[in-house]
Q: What sequence folds into this?
């Protein structure tokens, strides 16, 4: 039987869960059936919540952009001129396990989110990085924790489950070696919004005084009905919200900048209004993306192979251990958008003019080194 909708899968598995079968064995099955990550073209089509959300936000912002009259050219630097030094109260940056050497002692960074810990298929915390690996850094270090799929997140957040209780206890205990805890759950199913809020509330209540509780959230330009990442609902439980103002264009979209200046301004305006300057960290990307005009990696039927042989300039068909194979060449056009000190300086100057007190980067080690001479920590 072909199961055509993840909704039926969720319903079926939830029924089994209520019959006292092992929750996280089912989570593993569901991961295989429904996993969708933001760095790959979505295979879920219109059934995928994140696909729908990305299409919706992009379409709505395109309408706004067409009507916008403000001139942002004032923030676009002249490559022939010296770039300004921009001052912020806090500068955050993600550092991933294995790339600790990218965090030099002299960098103008106040806070590091140490990336690597994640929740496994049994709901347990794994891959916790060793805080001592960043002993060269004198600022605050926050443990970043991810949950890699929507199915796993759904079961991990289930209220009343032993796995959730144990995970919260483990997170609080593990954060003892850090200055704070940073939650980066990017695959929360739509029906888990209330469970996520209660999860954040329990973590907030359990963390000792003095530990910063922070969260990374997708960039938004407006409130969305049923949004599990609702800024207004999440803000009371956390000390900082790291707004990921990037992936306006992503691997499965049409080519374009990871974050345009106009879109970033809209995200910052909404974030300042709802979150407030005291808790807001505006995220800036260090990375770019490339889009190819054609992708030739695919499964082929026999008629498709015949068409290739007839239309492409193929070499001789050969047999390797009884399997036919051939080679052919074709031209592919590639479009690249990336970030350098000029594009990053433009965002920083714009954010500063808007009253943003803190910025953050994904991720340290991907940047042009020249950017660090353009940042200053406000005394």
A:
């Amino acid at each position: 039987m072909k199961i055509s909708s993840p909704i039926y899968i969720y319903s079926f598995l939830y029924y089994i869960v209520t019959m006292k079968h092992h929750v996280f064995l089912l989570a593993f099955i569901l991961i295989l059936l429904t996993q969708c990550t933001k760095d790959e073209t979505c295979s879920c089509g219109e059934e995928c919540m994140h696909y729908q959300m990305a299409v919706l936000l992009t379409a709505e912002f395109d309408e706004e952009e067409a009507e916008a009259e403000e001139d942002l050219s004032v923030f676009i630097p002249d490559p022939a001129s010296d770039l300004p030094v921009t001052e912020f109260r806090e500068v955050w940056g993600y550092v991933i396990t294995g790339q600790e050497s990218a965090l030099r002692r002299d960098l103008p960074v106040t806070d590091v989110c140490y990336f690597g810990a994640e929740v496994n298929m049994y709901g347990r915390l794994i891959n916790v990085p060793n805080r001592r690996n960043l002993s060269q850094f004198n600022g605050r270090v926050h443990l970043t924790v991810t949950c890699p799929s929507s199915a796993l997140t759904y079961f991990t957040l289930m209220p009343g489950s032993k796995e959730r209780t144990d995970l919260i206890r483990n997170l609080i205990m593990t954060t003892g070696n850090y200055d704070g805890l940073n939650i980066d759950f990017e695959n929360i199913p739509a029906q888990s919004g209330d469970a996520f809020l209660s999860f954040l509330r329990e973590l907030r209540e359990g963390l000792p005084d003095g530990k910063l509780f922070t969260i990374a959230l997708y960039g938004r330009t407006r409130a969305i009905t049923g949004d599990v990442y609702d800024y207004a609902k999440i803000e009371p439980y956390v000390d900082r919200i790291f707004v990921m103002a990037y992936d306006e264009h992503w691997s499965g979209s049409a080519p374009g900048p990871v974050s345009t200046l106009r879109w970033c301004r809209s995200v910052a305006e909404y974030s300042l209004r709802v979150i407030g300057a005291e808790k807001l960290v505006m995220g800036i990307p260090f990375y770019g993306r490339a889009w190819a005009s054609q992708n030739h990696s695919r499964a082929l039927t026999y008629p498709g192979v015949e068409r290739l042989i007839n239309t492409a300039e193929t070499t001789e068909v050969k047999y390797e251990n009884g399997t036919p194979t051939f080679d052919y060449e074709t031209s592919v056009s590639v479009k690249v958008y990336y970030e350098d000190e000029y594009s990053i300086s433009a965002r920083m100057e714009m954010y500063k003019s808007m009253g943003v007190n803190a910025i953050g980067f994904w991720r340290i080690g991907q940047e042009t080194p020249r950017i660090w001479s353009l940042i200053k920590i406000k005394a």
